[in-house]
Structure formats: C-alpha cells, structure tokens
Amino acid sequence: MSEAVDFKIVEEPKRPMAMNPKKFGMWLFMASVLMLFISLTSAYIVRQAEGNWLFFDLPTIFVVSTAIIVVSSVTMQLAFWSARKDDVERVKVMVLLTAILGLAFVISQYLGWKDLVARSVYLVGNPSGSFLYIITGLHAIHLVSAVVFLLFVLYSSFRNKVNSKNTVQIEICTTYWHFLGVLWVYLYVFLTLLR
Amino acid sequence: MTWIISLGAILVLVILYMIFKIGNLVGLVKGKKEEEFSISWNNANAIMFMIFMVVGLGGFFWYSYAHFDEYTLPVASIHGEVTDSLFWITMWVTVVAFAIIFVVMFWFTFAYKYEKGRKAAYFADNHKLEILWTVVPAIVLALLVFRGLRVWHEITGPASKEAVVVEMVGQQWLWMARYPGVKDKTLGHHNYKLIDASNEFGLDLTDKNSYDDFKSLELHIPVGQEILMKIRAKDVLHSVFLPHFRVKMDAVPGVQTHFKFTATKTTAQMREELNNPAFNYEMACTEVCGKGHFSMKFPVVVDTQEDYQEWLESQESWLKQNPDYLKYVPAELKEAAMIKAGIPLDNTVTVQTAAIK
Amino acid sequence: MATIDVHPQTATHHHDEHGDDHAHHGNFWTTYIFSEDHKVIAKQFLFTGMAWALIGGMLSVLFRLQLGFPEANLGWLKPILGGWLTPEGKIDPEFYLALVTMHGTIMVFFVLTAGLSGTFSNFLIPLQIGARDMASGFMNMLSYWFFFLSSAIMFISLFISTGPAAGGWVIYPPLSALPQAISGSGLGMTLWLVSMALFIVSSLLGSINYITTVINMRTLGMSFTKLPLTIWAFFLTAIIGILSFPVLFAAALLLIFDRSFGTSFYLSDIYIGGEALPNQGGSPILFQHLFWFLGHPEVYIVLLPALGITSEIIATNSRKPIFGYKAMVGSMLFIAILSFVVWAHHMFVTGMNPFLGSIFTLLTLIIAVPSAVKIFNYVTTLWKGNIRFTPAMLFSIGLVSFFLTGGITGIFLGNSAVDIQLHDTYFVVAHFHLVMGSASFFGMMAGVYHWFPKMFGRMMDEKLGYLHFWLTFIGVYLVFFPMHYIGIAGFPRRYYTWTAFETFSGFADLNMLVSVAAIITMVAQFIFLFNFIYNIFRGKLAPANPWNATTLEWTTPRLPGHGNWVGEIPTVYRWPYDYSKPGSKEDFIPQHIPYSETPESNLPHENDEIKLEMGGAGAIVVEERKH
Ligand code: HEM
Ligand SMILES: [Cu+2]
Ligand SMILES: [Cu+2]
Fold first, then answer.
1. Contacting C residues, span 172-191, partner chain B, CB-CB under 8 Å
2. Pick from B204, C187, C207, C521: most CB atoms within 10 A?
C-alpha cells in the first residue's frame, strides 16, 4: 500500500458538492409544507369546480395581515444582515420586532376569523368556508412555530451565539420566515382570485 | 380442519429441524470443507429454478386451457364483447412476452450458474439493445392503449335519447331500482332530506314526474335496447357491478353517476346457451360498504322487448303503493297525481286532503 | 503533490476522534434505546417491521381461513378473538373487514414502508456513501420513536371493543367518517388517523435525513454517477415521500374535521341510521383524489428500495456489473416523476370525468415502459454471469419474477376500458400483491440475508435460507396466481363470502388451495425467524466482506462501531460495479481502489482519468506500476 499512497495524490477524486445539512434539511421541510398547501389548494379548486359553492368576501383585515407579514420579512432580513455585520444589539431588536409582528399577524388572522363568524361563515357549513378556516389556520400554526423558532434565535443572541461567525441558525430561521411570508401571499392571492 | 393445520405446522417444523441437524452434522463430518462455497447446493438451486419454470409455466398453461369455462364469464352486452376482445388481445400479447422473459430469465440462472474458474462477462451496457427494448414495449403498449381509448370513449359517451332509464340506489346493504314509469318516462326529483321509512327514494312529490315512478326489487331490462343506468347512494359508497354485462360504476352519496349499456342476451337465451335452466343474472356491490357488503345481491332479468313492456305495465307506481303520501302532493296537482299513479279517483281524495293539518 | 493530500486528511481527522470516543461512552439507554447511531436505528426499524410483518401475516391467515374454509368452526380461536366470533364459530363479517383493513395498513405502511426503507436507508446510506452517520442523528432517532408511537397506537386499536378501522386501507369516506356505518369508524378510525399522522411525521423526518445525507455527506470522490443503485433508490424514495406524504396528511386532516368537527369536505346528502345528516356540498371523490395522489407514489415508495437492493445483490452474485446503470437510474427517476401523475387510474369507475380517464390511461401506460426496462436490465445482468445462489440472490431473482408477473397485469388494469370489469376484483388483488407486496417483501428478505453479516457480524445459515426461499417463493405463487382466475371470473374483493351469489359460487377448491398455501407460506417464515434470531447470537463469525462485494460498507470492520470506519473514511475512485473486469486477477475491484493501482484492468477512459490529474506525466506512472 505504501506505493499506492503516491498514486492517491496523483488521482485526486473530486470533492462532492455539499451544503450545510441543516440548511438543506430546512429546504426539504419547506418542500413538504409547500406540498401540504398545494394539495389543500388543489382540493379547493377541485371542490369549487363541482358547484354548490358559497360566495363571501374575504375579511378586509387580511390586507393588514399581508402588510404585517411583508414588513416582518423586512425586519427579519435586517436581523440577518445585522448578524452578518456583528451588530448584536440590532439583531436582538430586529428579531424581537419580527416576533412581535408575527404575533400581530396571527392576531390579525384571528380578527379575520371573527369577522367571518360575524358574517355567518362558519367552519361547519359550506366547504367554501371550511376551506378558508383550515387553510388560514394551518398557515397560522406554521407561523406560530416560526415565532417559537425566533425565540430560540433571540435566546441564542442573548448568549452571544448569533454573530458573523454563527449565522446558520438565524439564516435558517430567516429562510423559514420568508417562506411563510411568501406562502401567505400566495394563499391570499389564491383565495382572492378563486372565490 | 384445525388438526390438519396443526399437523401441517408440526410437519414443517420437524422437517426444518431435521434439515438443520443434518446440515450441522454434514458440516461436522466434512470439517473444514464447510467454509467453502458449496457448488452442489448452488447447482441444486439452479435445477430447482428450471423445475419451477417448467412446472410453473406448464401448470399455468394447463389450468388456463383446461378450466377455461370455469373462470370466464359469458358476456351479454355489446360493449362487453369489445372490452373482452381487448382483454384477450392484451392477454395474448402479454402472455407471449411473459413466457419469453420468464423462460429466458430462468434459463440464464441455470446456464450461468457458478462454475469454478469461469469469469463473468464485463457487459455494462449496450445502447442499441436498450433503445430497442424501450421502444418496442412503448409501441406495443401504445397500440393496446389506443384501441382501449377508442372503446372507452364510446362506453363513456352520452346515451341516446331513446335509452331506457333506470335508477339504481345503493344503501346499506341492499339495492333498489326506480323506474320512471310508463306515463312520463322521466324520473321524478328526489331529495335526501325527504327520505323516511316508506319514502326510501326521497321522492319529491312536488315534482309531477315522480307520480308514476315505481320501485322494483328486481332489475328488469329489455334485450337489444340501450339502458341508461343512473346510480346514486344513500349512505356510503357502493358500486354497481353487473359481471355478465361488464358494467361497473360507483354509487356515490351526493353525486349521480351513470353507465350505459345494451344487453345482448335474454335470461332465457343465456340459460339455453349455458345449458343451465337455473341461471340468473345478478348484480353485486364492489365498493366496500360495511358489514353486509358481500350480500348486496340484486336479481337481474333480461326480457325480450315484449315481455319487458308487459312487465312495465304490470308494475304499480310507488305512490299507489303508498297512498298516504298523497298528502305531500300540492293540492292543485292531486288529481293529476292520482291519475298518473293509477289511484282510482273516488272519495279517498277528500279523506286524504282532510288529513293534512 | 503532498500538499494536495493534506487537505482531505485534516478534514476527516476531526471526525475520526469524534467517531471513536463515542463508542466507549453511553449507557444502555443511549446505546440501544435512544441511540442516534444509524445502525442501531436501522435495527430498531427492522425488528419493529418484522414484528408487524408477523402480525400482518397472522391477520391474513385469519381471513384466509374464512375464505378457504367457509364452513369451518373456528371456535378454537375464541381465546384470541373473543367476541369477534359468532356463536357458530365464524368470524364476524364486520371483523372480517377490520382484518382486511388492518392487514393492508400494516403491510403497506408499517412493514414495507417503515420496515423496508427505515431499515435499509438508515443502515446503508451512511455505510455506502462513506459517512460516519446520518446528517442528524437526533432527527433520525425521533423518526424511529415517532414510528414506534404510531405503531403502539395502531396496535392498541386492534384491541378496543368497537374494533379497529374497518373501511379498507384506503379509508374512503363516508364509510370511514361515519361510526353509524361501521363500528370500526368510531374510536378505531380515530386511532388509525392519529397513528398515521405520527407515521407521516416519522416518515418525513426520515426522508429529510436521507436526502440531506446523500446530498451532503458523501465521501471524497463519491459523485452521483458512482453511487450504488441502492442509494439512488433510497434517495428517490425519500424525495417521493417528502412530496407525497404531506398530501395524505391533508386528506386525513380534512377527514378528521369531517369526523369530529362537523365540516362537509367529503360528506353530502347522507341518510343513515334513520336520519338525514346535515352535511351538504362535500365530495367523497375529492378524498379519493387526495388519497391516491399519495397512494400511487406510495406503491413506489414501497417498491423502489426493494429494486435498489435487488440491483445490488444481483450484480454482486452474478459477479457482473449491473447492466445499464444509467438506464436503471434513469428509469427510477422517470418512475419517480411519473408516479405523481397516474393516481386517477385507481378511480376509472368512480364517475370521474371520462376525459380524465383517458389522460390517466395514457400516463399509466407510459409508466409501464421504464418498469419493463428494469426487468430487461435485470435479466441481461444474469446473462453470462457466474451466478452464486446465496439466499439473498434467490430472493432477488424471486423479486424479478414477481415484478414481471405482477407488472404484466398492470397493463390490463391501466387500460380504462378493460379495468371496468377488473376493478375491485381479485385480479387487482393478484396484481398488487405480486408487484408490490411480494416483490417488496422479497426485496426486504434479500436485503436482510445480504447485509446480515454487516448488521450482526455473523452469518445466517444458507440451507435454511434456501428452504425458506423455496417454500416462500412457491407459496407466494400458489397464493396469488390463482387469484387471477378468480378475478377474471369477476369475484369482488373484500367479500366475506361469495356464497350469496350464483355467479361467484365456484372456485371453492381454488380458494382452499390459496388458503392452504397462505398458511404454509406463513409457517415458512418461522424458518427465517429461527435462522435470524439464532444466528444473531450463535452464527458463524462473518468475514468483513463475505460476498466479495465492491461497495464501501464492506470495507468497514466485521461489526462496524460508532463512526463506521476505524481510521479514515475511504475515498472513492470508481463506480460500484467493477465485477469480473477483464484483466483484473480478482473478480471484483472495490470502489476505494484507485485506477492507478489497477492499470491491468483499466479501460481507456479510466486511464485518461489518471493522466489528466498527472498533467501528462501519468503515463509514466502507469507504466512504472506494470514493472
Ligand atoms: C406496469 C406498470 C403498472 C401498471 C400499468 C399498473 C396499473 C394499475 C392500475 C390501473 C391499478 C388500479 C386497478 C383497479 O383498482 O382497478 C393498479 C392497482 C394497484 N397497483 Fe399497479 N400498476 C403497475 C405497477 C404497479 C407497481 C410497480 C406497484 C407497486 C409497487 C403497483 C401497485 C398497485 C397497488 C397497490 C394497487 C391497488 C391498490 C388498491 O386498490 O388497494 N402497481 N395498478
Ligand atoms: Cu358494498
Ligand atoms: Cu397506482
């Protein structure tokens, strides 16, 4: 084998491409979440095509929700950039702000539900309403999970573990947050167009 | 019964134990030899594959030939003859392919069983071969499918205006047939909220067309005339299956499905053909629907057109059988309803009207 | 030149220490129960899967007793079945449906998905790509324990008084939504749904891990074109899983809402138990679309790993490269993609739009082509081989045979016009048991026989393996082949008995044969069980590479510890199928042997690979070596 050692150097194999496994795992997780919503929205389309579909307007407050979630994406991104620049204090502020906006979004969605109930659109009844509750509800649950994730990031930042050398956690969190934001925008547009 | 099973089990266990013991003993006797790869067992397995191939294929062909009449159902509908022929064409094509691959594969296992010192061929790919066996199956399959699609298109196309309409309703665990009646030849509306113990169809008696509808616990259809079967279910999924007519369609609560077909042989003709005076057509359920799924039998009779007409006219309308329900008929339609339903127009009218609160 | 060498060395060195010192720590709980080692987790999946296989098999024997011997008095089963026997000693018709449902669920999900993928993806991915462990050992552990929890709940559901779910493994509503319709749709169905939700979580955790590991943790030189087909199969299976299981989750979620919260996604116009339900506007067909959107990919989730395992074993034991490596990968890829667009072939007679039926007929027939290609490739791999019939090889050949037999009938079923008659008859039962059930089961068996030496460091008994194979192989054919005839004769599936119909009154003999064969096949599995358990403890010690195979797992010690390789992880230079290469003395060249060490057997383009790196001087080195 001693001879062989020489040759090994000669014939160097290519290093396989790689990405941070955690980041990659998050992408896969998002793929499956996306499938969940794609299947629900396809079910929505299929069911709607069969007729007997109750028409009602989306709660107007969903516009506010959408605005909130867009802004929260901005703050999240700022937090990430601050982490890269080692601006730890700003990371804390921005992460906290994002989390608060996240909760505001969930509350706004809840107000939307109350609005629906006030207009006699219930979970139980015509599937057109049931779908709306389930789709927005599932999205809100995912958003709450992202807020929990944010709190972990916040905790790490207080322990000085979020900085330009440790960006993986906050980067994954940012990705997830943007994903949920885009997902909501997709859902909102979808629900608006397909009444 | 039980003892046969337990005996079999014990027998197998004993054989097992013996083989294991013998294997060990032989190993002991042979001593070191045991370490080596056993050529004789290898050959034994190869030979077994050959035996399996011959006996297996032989058994398959023999049974398929000898018991042909047992496992093929006579066919009695126009489209059924077409799909059957497609089935058998597919069968011929695939059986030839199957037999060739089967034989070749097991032959290879035998011919290329391990031999000391022989070196296997380093044969990693061959594009011509691969393209060939991608393209050929693709073409054959395409031909089969195109025939299939044409047939499918015809079967699922719209029924003609003259088709005889029958409604099949599935519920746990029986079928009911509803005929549109001789007077209007149109099925009346139904609504599941109107269903009760007597009004099993949920007939909507505000619809004129419902008055002469009648219920039957036998499916009567005329030979040689297109039937449009409308299908629905009251509780869970069921599926109409008329094996001799190659008809199958799910019955779905909340949705109406349908299937059109034309019977080609009356029950009497079929009895003659099969030489079985006891023969009857039957309808079954093929979508699991609970405890009684296996017992949802519904008798089917194919009549000559004259017999069918006669049978039709002999049937009493549902309303006539359930005159109580006249009270749900709007007052202005009552007389028409009674005429259509074949209820004699005597003083019952006043009695019935009085009954409404 | 030496400088190039340093880089990978240091990179792996760090891992080594990490790998080694773990092996000495840990107590019983962290080593065997909540282990994060992929090999232990694989074994946990295997044992659980085997337990489920036994339970699932027993259930099938029970309902085969009913079908084969409708007159028999099963009173002797009273101690086990209790109230599920009628006073005459017959199985209760509703319990019959519960048995069928549980059998299907258990076999498809718990045995052939978790038991097969869970075992072999976990065991082989790190070992064959040259990684110390999975990307996330913790998630991997969670994946098993979610599966365990899911199993426990499903198991408990077998014993509740209203019985387990009984609406078929496809749980079509309204039957599965209404306890009034069948008692299994009460608590039993709730437990089924909870169990499956956990199962989906487990499967997603596993799949994410498999994909991440394959993408990111391959050893030096292990490019995608050098991956063993097993890894390709596990990789594609995991991708299918990630994309399809969420859809089942969505379907189940809506069903849960219908069952428990009064929504009407799947329910409409129902009159049952003397009352009209308020639900309106739902569509049972919607559920079927969602279910089969998972359901069809699921059959490939079950089958692809088995095909991967078989490819590996057939090549190794034919002492030949697998024929058409690229075509094999290509067809798996093609199958994986197409499996998402054929689902509605399960729904030709649901009343769905006939035009859709045509589209799905076309797409379905397309998917038959790559399947055929795979068969041809297997057969050609055998050609001019030097075949060793190890038990693993026997089971692999068995798989190809089943795949062929069962695949052929798919061509009938995929043709919508022909499917009208065959749908929901025993013909379908024969089709999918051969092509999916038996084929995948044989793949799993082949895998166990083949990798047992690496899993437990000991050898299984070959002769018992032969006996097990022949009894099972012939038994399976005797069970499922006659079902084609029964199906052509129109016998519907999920029937408690056929005696109610004149049309279906024949074939008592054939049904009895099937049942007897099923019992014998079931009993034959105890041979395996004995062989397996006995040899875990008492088997002959295995050599490190008992089958003279080329892939990386055989470069590990006899019983690899935590971290898999004692020293450095080997580097990969060649594809995994260099068997019987012309010029080479040995009939196999493992993946970690550089081309520069085998000048006698290199193909021209392989020599180029050396020269390229050498910048022109390579030719000299190669010649030197020849002296
Ligand atoms: C040659 C390619 C294949 C074709 C054309 C094909 C076609 C079909 C069709 C049309 C059906 C529906 C039959 C019916 O219910 O009426 C079916 C059922 C089924 N197939 Fe295949 N199939 C093929 C290969 C496979 C493979 C490879 C697997 C599994 C690995 C598989 C597993 C199943 C299962 C599990 C069912 C029945 C599900 C149920 O109703 O419970 N098929 N197949
Ligand atoms: Cu049924
Ligand atoms: Cu399918």
1. 172, 174-175, 178, 181-182
2. C207
How distant is the alpha carbon of residue C35 from its chain centre?
Answer: 23
Alpha carbons C276 and C288: distance in angstroms, whole number = 23
Q: Which of residues 198-257 of B touch C (CB under 8 A)?
A: 202, 231, 234-237, 239, 241, 243-244, 246-250, 252-257
Per-residue pLDDT of B1-48, as tens digits, reads: 455 556 666 766 676 666 666 666 555 555 444 445 788 889 999 999
Closest of C471, C436, C469, C435 to residue C450, by C-alpha: C469
Output the CA B251–ligand 2 centroid distance in Å.
9
> CA C252 to CA C287: how far, in whole Å?
9
Residue C180 C-alpha from the chain's centroid: 35
Kindly provide the ipTM of the predicted complex, given to two decimals.
Answer: 0.90
Question: Are B227 and B168 contacting, i.e. CB atoms less than 8 angstroms apart?
Answer: no
Lookup: tokens for C150: 């899911």
CATH classification (class only), C38-538 = mainly alpha
Neighbouring CB atoms inside 10 A of A123's CB total 18
Residue A49 within any structural domain of the chain: no
Q: Whose CA is nearest to atom 6 of ligand 1?
A: C410
Asked if B138 lies within 8 A of C530 by C-beta distance, the reply is: no
pLDDT in tens, B286-323: 999 999 999 999 999 999 999 999 999 899 999 989 88
In degrees rounded to 5, what are phi and psi of residue C336?
-60, -40
User: Does residue A85 sit within a domain?
Assistant: yes
Phi-psi region of C548 (alpha: psi -120 to 50; beta: other; left: phi over 0): left
The one-letter amino acid at C1: M
Q: How far is CA C575 from the centre of its chain?
A: 25
Which residue, among C247, C287, C571, C598, would best test binding to A if mutated, counting the most A CBs under 10 Å from its CB? C247
Contacts of B213 (CB under 8 A, 6+ apart): B178, B179, B180, B181, B187, B188, B201, B203, B317, B318, B319
Of B122, B148, B280, the CB nearest to C582: B122
pTM (two decimals): 0.90
Partner chains of B (3+ C-beta pairs under 8 Å): C
CA distance A52 to chain C (A): 6
* Contact at CB, A43 and C265, closer than 8 angstroms: yes
User: What are the domain boundaries of chain C?
Assistant: 38-538
Instruction: Please report, for the domain that includes residue A113, its CATH number.
Output: 1.20.120.80
CA distance C315 to C320: 5
**Nearest in space to C581 (alpha carbons), one of B119, B38, B213:** B119
Structure tokens of C292? 């089969």
Q: Which residue in B122, A8, A16 sits closest to C594, CA to CA? A: A8
Within-domain flag for A157: yes
Residue C620, classed as helix, strand or coil, is: helix
C35 is written with which tokens? 């282990």
Backbone angles phi, psi at A52, to 5 degrees: 50, 60
How many CB atoms are located within 10 Å of the residue C302 CB?
26
CB-based contact, C240 to chain A, within 8 Å: no
Residue C609 C-beta-side C-alpha neighbours within 13 Å: 21
CB C322 within 8 A of CB C229: yes
> Number of structural domains, chain A?
1
Sketch out chain B's domains with CATH numbers.
164-352 (2.60.40.420)
Residue type, C132: R
- Partner C contacted by B132 (CB < 8 A): no
Q: Could you tell me the sign of the dihedral formed by the alpha carbons of A97, A98, A103, A106, in that order?
A: positive
- Determine the structural domain holding residue A160 and report its residue range: 56-193
As to burial, measured by CB atoms within 10 angstroms (0-12 exposed, 13-18 middle, 19+ buried), residue C349 is buried
pLDDT at B17: 66
The CA-atom distances, in angstroms, between C181 and each of B235, B317, B357, C233, C272 are: 8, 30, 35, 41, 7
Chain C residues lying within 8 Å of A126, measured CB to CB:
264, 280-281
